[in-house]
Write a structure and sequence with these properties.
With 184 residues, this protein is mainly alpha-helical. It folds into two domains: 141 residues; 41 residues. It contains six helices and no strands. The two termini are 43 Å apart.
């Protein structure tokens, strides 16, 4: 009986390697999103070469300006989403498969890519999601047609909620650092 239990536990433990599928897929998605955002930047820059055309009408220049700002925000959103996928992939690998020796051994390694626990991964992903939400709100605010005072109040309320979210995000981060420094 002990033999079957040991065999079952070994199979169960090695089952964690199925996470590699999610890691590879997430890295592929991150690469694809980085590629798409970079292509968008190339086209955006190419499109903006006409911005200096002196024969362009003022209205056309203003429309191009507004459209460009919106596209830049979309590109930032794309890069943030790609970063989210990258952090997710690396975090899942570190949590379920193995530490990434290159990340731990490198002096230039960013601490954001070294994941110590599931809570650590969730915290880092939540920060990226918060940034994506901020960028999305900014993108929508650029498109918003404020026609009534209530529209302005809604926008102000959304901005206030973002501020509260950022406050609590930084508060929890500083609280975590204080508890790490406290003697046990």
């Amino acid at each position: 009986m002990r033999f079957f239990e040991k065999l079952f536990e070994k199979a169960l433990w090695n089952g964690r390697f199925v996470v590699v599928v999610a890691v590879v897929a997430s890295m592929a998605a991150a690469t694809a999103i980085f590629y798409m955002a970079t292509v968008d930047v190339v086209y955006l820059v190419g499109h903006m070469l006409n911005y200096a055309d002196p024969s362009m009408a003022l209205e056309a220049r203003k429309a191009m300006h507004d459209e460009t700002i919106t596209h830049v925000v979309e590109v930032v959103d794309g890069y943030l989403l790609a970063t989210f996928m990258l952090i997710f992939a690396l975090g899942m690998y570190e949590l379920f498969v193995s530490d990434i020796d290159e990340a731990h051994g490198s002096k230039t390694s960013s601490k954001i890519l070294v994941i110590e626990s599931l809570d650590d991964l969730k915290s880092r992903l939540a920060k990226v999601i918060l940034m994506i939400l901020i960028v999305t709100l900014f993108e929508e605010a650029l498109k918003m047609n404020l026609t009534t005072p209530l529209d302005l109040l809604y926008l102000g309320g959304a901005i206030a909620l973002i501020g509260v979210a950022l406050y609590f995000s930084h508060k929890s981060e500083s609280h975590g650092k204080e508890s790490e420094e406290a003697p046990h």
